[in-house]
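User: Teach me something about this protein's shape.
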Amino acid sequence: MAASEKARAKAEQAVGKAAQAAGRATGNDKLIAKGRAAQAAGEARQAKESVKDTGRP
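Assistant: First, the predicted structure itself:
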């Protein structure tokens, strides 16, 4: 299941980056903030999976 979580983390990061770019292009501060939040969630998920991987033999 770790592989699917890692893929989900990468997807969240990509969605966040895209939302930020769209927000900057349109001048929509709310969209930029949502993009940052999605990207941060993806980074947190990725960090969690990395920590779980270090504990495995």
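Now, about its shape. Residues 18 and 52 are 28 Å apart (CA to CA). The two ends are 16 Å apart (CA to CA). If you'd like, I can walk through any region in more detail.
User: That's plenty for now, thanks!
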